[in-house]
Amino acid sequence: MDDYPKLRLYIDGRWIDTTGCGSMAVENPADGSELGQLPVAGDAELDAALAAAGRGFRVWRSRSAFERFQVITQATRLMRERAPRIARAITLEQGKPLAEALREVQLSADIIDFLAEEGKRVYGRTVPPRQANVLSQTVMRQPVGPVAAFTPWNFPVNLPSRKLGGALAAGCSVIIKPAEETPASCMLLVEAFHDAGLPPGVINMVCGEPARISATLLAAEPIRKASFTGSVAVGKMLGELAARGMKRYTAELGGHAPVIVCADADIASAAKLAVVAKFRNAGQVCASPIRFYIHESRYAEFRDRFVAHAESLKVGSGLDQSSDMGPLIHDRRLREMQNFVDDALALGGKLCCGGQALPGKGYFYPPTVLEKVPAAARVRQVEPFGPIALLQPFSTLDEALTEANGLAVGLSAYAFTRDLATAHRLGEELEAGMVGINHFGVSQPETPFGGWKESGMGQESGMEGLLAYTEVKLVSIAA
Fold it and tell me: Most buried among 57, 94, 138, 428, by the most CB within 10 A?
């Protein structure tokens, strides 16, 4: 399309539109058409990016936090000015409705701004010495070093922004590898930093064969930290690679979020909010609510309202302003959704709505609601990462908590109740890094984002996300 940007890599302050390794096609998931050709980084480009990141780190770490803040916030000003263009690129290559894409850009700028502002407040502390000849003992934080950052396709500006914002505010340089399905979104983000006057080498962007790039970067001496957002399986592999070089590692991995709806909940509000949260970005959200446990006395009411709201959503191209939900990212996700549904139904689950891919071009799957799916079904154990919701009644809160906490993942969890004591109990006992009571808005620029158990290690966003890009140093001075 004429309004889709020309795809390029970015190394040492220069844009690269051709490499010796050729290119790969990027397609529009709404119709399967080719949007552009993405240059593939080879050994030469990776070596250049590593060398540039080393030089860039030495320059950037020497800047004061206030100087870094000025450059970073100039970039976010450009992001906001260019938000319509960036949002359109997101919709073209990722598929989400344009209004969702525009909110993503605006929130991403807010995330970066918060981290840049907090970068001026990375405080240390003074520890009183025990010996009389020790004049001072200071605990300080310094930037960890060049960072290798890996991001997926579902939030192609938001997720790079969390990593770039934290790393740059702390004084680190970055080599970022966005998903090859959605490179233009990250490229336009990097362009804003380039135009804001970020020194060469502080940000480098490469794309290509993911396993090759990750193995090369994580084995390279200049890289001191890796940050990854994606699946549990890949997150574990990258963690092993990082551990071999004793490199710091942050991993935000998958979830399978439970929602407990208590008997005293506002059912009308809960059902409406749940549908919006569940089918946002076609369910391709790591913190998406999936497993709904509803008290048996309110089960039928919640199910009927939830299904009615789900069926009212219009599925279509994200460029169509009337669309509530766009396509899945590629045809493999379509097949995966169908496999989840067919397996659940074969084992005795019941279909309330959806359940079949929509005909025609593009990778469209409707909002799908399954109820009373047996525990043996794959969708009860594995995150579907798509527009599938599971409804299940419960009789006691103990039972609901056991079910909610019964998986190896724990990224986010939600609950609805009007009882204050129950709300506190749920907040205490749900095993997840983020718990929302009576709402789903757990991800904000000021709040830490991260999971328990196999959902990852460390946090992004919030002050915790900034500190993840620093090392602790004690300086003890004696007379």
Answer: 94
- Among all residues, which ones are annotated catalytic? 252, 286
Note the pTM of the prediction, 2 decimals. Answer: 0.96
Beta pairing partners, 24: 38
CA distances from 440 to 125, 272, 288, 443, 447 (A): 36, 11, 9, 8, 13
DSSP bridge pairs for 10 = 15, 205
Phi, psi of 436 (to 5 degrees): -110, 125
Confidence tier at 2 by pLDDT (50, 70, 90): low
Going by pLDDT thresholds of 50, 70 and 90, the confidence category of residue 186 is very high
Residue 255 has pLDDT above 60, yes or no: yes
Tokens (6 digits) for 231 = 């699946």
Task: Spell out the domain ranges in the chain.
Answer: 9-253+455-478, 257-444
CATH of the structural domain 9-253+455-478, one choice from 3.40.630.30, 3.40.605.10, 3.40.50.720, 4.10.640.10? 3.40.605.10
Average pLDDT over residues 103-130: 97
